[in-house]
Design a protein that fits this description.
Layout (H helix, E strand, L loop, with lengths): L5 H8 L3 H9 L6 H14 L5 H6 L6 E6 L5 H16 L3 E6 L4 H12 L6 E3 L7 H8 L4 E4 L11 E5 L1 H13 L5 E4 L7 H18 L4 E4 L5 H13 L4 E4 L2 H13 L9 E5 L3 H5 L5 E4 L2 H16 L8 E4 L1 E3 L8
Parallel strand pairs: 1-2, 1-3, 3-4, 4-5, 5-11, 6-7, 6-8, 8-9, 9-10
Antiparallel strand pairs: 10-12
Helix pairs in contact: 1-2, 1-3, 2-3, 5-13, 6-7, 8-9, 10-11
Pfam family, one: LacI
Protein name: LacI family transcriptional regulator
GO molecular function, one term: transcription cis-regulatory region binding
């Protein structure tokens, strides 16, 4: 389908392109009859003004680039929605992309949105600095990181979660229910400073409650088979209470345990980061350490808007995690 252009509008109205432009942008002197002719032509042809051309005449495009790792992941879907909703209410449109946990895809998206003359970007970065991230920051456009930091780019404000409150509450709950050993499945920590921080905080708190000899930590890759082998080793070590630092691992574990006829909340107790809708639909419901994703998204978007408005004190913010106990944690 061919797009209707301003030349088509001018031809239909029987006037010059420059006159149509002045009528649409309300610049210069235009007679009521000419303006009416332009409006009729626009309506008849269903003309949509070219936002790129408008952006070239303006300092603002009212568009923001938003990059998340995986829109299929319920946590990142909720995060993207909260950010997009906050920006929309402020009059901004959002270009959303997914990196698929790939620095190459992240950089391709950043390069693409820079060609669109965006007003700035909100990004869940892939672990560390890259050429495209440095290029983006070199434009001096407002940039906010959410959920994660990027190594080597400490000057970018970050809105993320503080894992300590939620982890501490979960571990104390597990102890009160009589468990003497606890395991932690940290996820693909090599690619994520946030997952590394969660694991570090878990080790410190769990060692203080259970003793280091009763604390077991394993990492995984992005593969389901990796999660399966970790579960097998944990169970072989006599660990019947597990915390998952990476929610996709917990989703895999729920399925794997069901296939093995292992009863969650009876034979094994589990807690996962991220309050996914799926965890409230399973039977039993899964106990979670909520990162307060709505608040992270809203705060990240608002921090971005404050930077656009010229706020010079754009500081990083942390949102405390909250433990929500459910039936997936039973008694030892």
């Amino acid at each position: 389908m061919a797009y209707v252009t301003i030349r088509d509008v001018a031809r239909r109205a029987g006037i010059s392109v420059s006159t149509v432009s002045r009528a649409l942008n309300e610049t210069g002197r235009i007679s009521p009859q000419t303006k009416a002719a332009v409006e009729r032509a626009v309506e008849e042809l269903h003309y949509i003004p070219d936002s790129r051309a408008k952006a070239m005449r303006s300092l603002s495009t009212r568009t923001v680039g938003l990059l998340v790792p995986d829109i299929r992941n319920g946590y990142f879907a909720d995060l993207a929605y909260a950010i997009q909703d906050t920006l929309f209410n402020a009059g901004y449109c959002t270009f959303i992309g997914t990196s698929s946990e790939s620095a190459t895809r992240q950089d391709a998206f950043i390069t693409s949105i820079l060609s669109q003359r965006i007003d700035g970007a909100i990004i869940v970065p892939q672990g560390e600095q890259s050429d495209a991230l440095r290029l983006l920051l070199g434009t001096k456009l407002p940039v906010v990181f959410v959920d994660r930091q990027a190594k080597g780019l400490g000057g970018v404000p970050v809105v993320d979660s503080n894992p300590e409150p939620g982890l501490a509450a979960a571990l104390h709950d597990i102890q009160r229910r009589g468990f003497a050993r606890v395991g932690y499945v940290s996820g693909p920590v090599l690619d994520s400073p946030s997952l590394q921080e969660r694991e570090s905080v878990f080790r410190v708190i769990a060692a203080g409650i259970f003793g280091e000899e009763n604390v077991f930590v394993e990492s995984t890759s992005f593969e389901r088979a990796s999660c399966e082998s970790v579960l097998r080793r944990m169970h072989g070590s006599g660990v019947d209470a597990l915390i998952f630092g990476y929610s996709p691992d917990a989703v895999s574990a729920v399925s794997l345990l069901a296939d093995s006829a292992v009863r969650i909340g009876r034979d094994i107790s589990i807690v996962s980061f991220d309050d996914l809708e799926l965890f409230r639909l399973t039977s039993p419901q899964i106990s979670v350490i909520s990162q307060q994703v709505q608040e992270i998204g809203q705060r990240g978007a608002q921090l971005f808007l404050d930077m656009l408005a010229g706020e010079t004190q754009a500081a990083s913010q942390r949102v405390d995690t909250v433990y929500a106990p459910r039936a997936s944690v039973g008694k030892a």
